[in-house]
Specification:
It is a single chain. By secondary structure, the chain is mainly alpha-helical. The protein folds into 4 domains: about 180 residues, no CATH class; about 30 residues, no CATH class; about 300 residues, ABC transporter type 1, transmembrane domain (ABC transporter transmembrane region fold, Up-down Bundle); about 100 residues, no CATH class. About 65% of the residues lie in helices and about 5% in strands. It is built from 20 helices and 6 strands. Strands 2-1-3-6-4-5 form a 6-stranded mixed β-sheet, covered by helices on one side. Helix 16 runs parallel beside helix 19. Its main location: membrane.
């Protein structure tokens, strides 16, 4: 390829140009390397991995719409033709290219082939528009717009150059491909399967990132009052059944490892439940990390942009030409990036919290169905799935904020050192003292939170029992006494909560003291230093330092308030863990017999053969249930019911009636296996 530099600019060096194109442009080698070769290479690598995944789904075609699929493929074919023409144009003598121009054109053409294959397979085997294609096309459109501006500026000296026109055509066709790929495929999916799914499962990446997929429920809420049936169903992966299965498998696996290990079993204070949650939700926990890092990067760009913008307003000689337009574009990109990254981050965070709540509530529910009611307070689950769960979610919401804010503070101190020198020590000292005070408060927050939750559990349990026995309470004339008792429990709960409230107030005070004192001490140290060195604090440094101080103190305010909540949530998790470790009743063995007349119906098939069977299920039994020689008791000392023999016919109404205290509930619990001690045979017909 004949490479010339007839544009008169230093396009062969890896830097912005100087002395031409308004002093506001990158060199061609920079644009072709960073804005073309780099994204194309990343796209090819990710496309290869995605193609491998889609090829494994070839037996499970999801979407139809062959005409629309061919339309997208036709647009890609047109784009391939224009890219081929661009490749030929770059090889012509006299083209204003660089050593990277031809490589970028070749790689762009290879991208088109990968794009065609990926678009075809994504349409058929994925329920939503391709995230990879849409993100790549949007990013490359922005990068191509920068390169197109450069080509048109170069073309002012080369009117016979066809590169700008061909590149413009490629940009228009790529934009049309983006619009086609962003079309959601709800109309092409089987209605019997996908009409009951969440709109999020078929939404394009832009709709998910900006929460546009919620527009349906928001519009419905504007027109009428919402009811639970109006809400969209949960997306796949948030259902409790699958989450509970994974959680229980890891929980029981840990139990077996502890039983087989020579080390002592985990104490109730050990973080076993936390580790099980981390293993169960590891991908959901890690998903918000990248958006949070991007948000931190955009946040740190603000004081740097402010410094350069103040220098531009001050008339610094390094800013010439169209720099002002550049500031407008960069500021728009920074704040747009902040909004989008924060939206994605919090969406993924709350998705993880929903999954965590599903795991814990399902685990508490399953444990409640297996726990021995004579050995444990059965009012505990009410508090665990309500008050404790809210505290757990409120604390875990800020897990990623802890490390992200700490990282932001460290970088802000370093930037402040570059701006003010040794004066950056002042806010660092204030931050250290505040951190020590906050963490001392956090160590007390755990115990204060647990005491509060225990008092709440006692009050909620007593209230539930009072509501369950409200008829007897009114008949006995005990309403005022029960009301006074519940009021005393409420007063005790508020008294227990007082310590945790004090800790929250002290923590908030410490965090806001940092916000008020840091600028004062920082500029005081700088002025003392300036008196000895003879330096001065100019306007640019003053405003930049204030921005950096705000960038450092605001995360500390959040951090100092988040740590006590996180520690308190760990205390609530230990309460849930203690409940999950509670002794459970011994389950009776289950023998399933075959249909009547089956040769194996007499012997039966044991599901659990550790002990002798006492519950038999006859699939085609003519009776609903049969009890033979039943003996039932709450404990092993004294049976409550002895010598029970009864038959209940199937397909008929059978009622258990009798006066209060005649063991009706005991018999009902015995029939479903809820009594811990029983003997005899109970046969259930199915």
């Amino acid at each position: 390829m004949a490479v010339t530099n007839s544009s008169g600019c230093d396009d062969f060096n890896f830097r912005p140009v100087s002395g031409c194109r308004g002093d506001f442009d990158f060199s061609l080698v920079f644009e072709h390397t960073i804005l073309s070769l780099a994204p194309s290479s990343v796209f090819l690598l990710l496309a290869a991995a995605r193609l491998f995944t889609l090829l494994r789904r070839r037996k499970h075609k999801i979407a139809t719409g062959r005409a629309f699929q061919l339309c997208k493929l036709g647009a890609v074919a047109c784009y391939a033709a224009v890219q081929t023409a661009l490749l030929v144009a770059w090889t012509r003598p006299g083209a204003s290219g660089t050593r990277a121009s031809l490589a970028a054109a070749v790689l762009d053409l290879v991208d088109v082939l990968a794009l065609a294959a990926l678009s075809w397979l994504e349409h058929a085997y994925s329920p939503r528009p391709s995230t990879l294609i849409n993100v790549y096309l949007l990013a490359s459109l922005v990068f191509d717009a920068v390169q197109l501006r450069t080509l048109w500026l170069i073309d002012q000296r080369h009117p016979d150059n066809v590169l700008p026109a061909e590149f413009s055509s490629a940009l228009v066709i790529k934009t049309s491909i983006l619009f086609l790929e962003a079309v959601e495929k709800g109309q092409f999916l089987p209605p019997e399967e996908w009409t009951s799914r969440s709109p999020e499962e078929t939404a394009v990446v832009f709709s998910r990132s900006l929460l546009i997929w919620l527009r349906g429920i928001l519009a419905k809420g504007r027109r009428t009052l919402l009811s639970p049936t109006d809400l969209d169903p949960l997306r796949e992966g948030l259902g409790t059944a699958r989450l509970s299965q994974s959680f229980q498998a890891i929980w029981h696996q840990n139990d077996k490892l502890e039983q087989n290990s020579t080390r002592p079993l985990a104490s109730p204070s050990s973080p076993k439940l936390v580790l099980v949650l981390v293993r169960t939700l590891k991908f959901s926990l890690l998903a918000p990390v990248i958006p949070r890092l991007v948000q931190t990067a955009f946040t740190l760009c603000q004081p740097l942009l402010l410094r350069e913008f103040l220098r531009y307003l001050d008339g610094h000689r390094t800013f010439v030409g169209s720099t002002g337009y550049g500031f407008i574009i960069v500021y728009g990109l920074v704040y747009l990036g902040l909004a989008i990254s924060a939206c994605i981050y919090w969406r993924l965070t709350y998705k993880c919290l929903v999954q965590m709540r599903g795991c814990l509530v399902a685990a508490v529910f399953e444990k409640t169905t297996r726990i021995d009611p004579s050995q444990y307070d059965m009012t505990a689950p009410v508090s665990l799935v309500s008050t404790d769960m809210e505290r757990i979610i409120a604390g875990c919401k800020d897990v990623h904020e802890v490390w992200a804010n700490a990282l932001q503070v460290a970088i802000a101190i370093w930037l402040l050192y570059l701006e003010l020198g040794i004066a950056c020590v002042a806010p660092a000292v204030v931050a250290t003292v505040s951190s020590i005070g906050s963490f001392l408060m956090s160590s007390c927050a755990d115990h204060a939170q647990v005491s509060w939750m225990e008092a709440t559990q006692e009050r909620v349990g007593a209230t539930a029992k009072a509501i369950a026995g409200i008829r007897s309470i009114k008949l006995l004339g005990l309403s005022n006494g029960v009301l006074d008792f519940l009021q005393r429990l409420r007063d005790a709960e508020l008294h227990s909560a007082r310590h945790f409230r004090y800790i929250e107030v002290l923590t908030a005070t410490i965090s806001f003291m940092k916000l008020l004192l840091s600028p004062v001490f920082t500029f005081m140290v700088f002025m003392l230093q300036a008196q000895h060195s003879g330096s001065q604090l100019d306007t640019v440094s003053a405003f930049t330092s204030l921005a950096l101080l705000n960038l450092m103190t605001q995360p500390l305010v959040w951090l100092f308030q988040a740590v006590p909540r996180l520690m308190a949530s760990l205390g609530c998790l230990r309460r849930v863990q203690s409940y999950l470790h509670a002794p459970q009743k011994a389950l009776r063995n289950l023998h399933v017999t075959g249909p009547v007349g089956d040769k194996n119906s007499s012997s039966g098939k044991s599901i659990n053969e550790d002990k002798a069977p006492n519950l038999v299920v006859n699939i085609l039994a003519p009776k609903a249930f049969t009890v033979q020689n039943g003996q039932f008791a709450w404990n092993s000392t004294k049976p409550v019911m002895v010598g029970v023999n009864l038959d209940a016919p199937a397909n008929q109404l059978t009622m258990i009636i009798g006066p209060v205290g005649s063991e009706k509930s005991i018999l009902a619990k015995a029939l479903i296996g809820e009594l811990p001690h029983s003997s005899g045979t109970v046969s259930l017909g199915m």
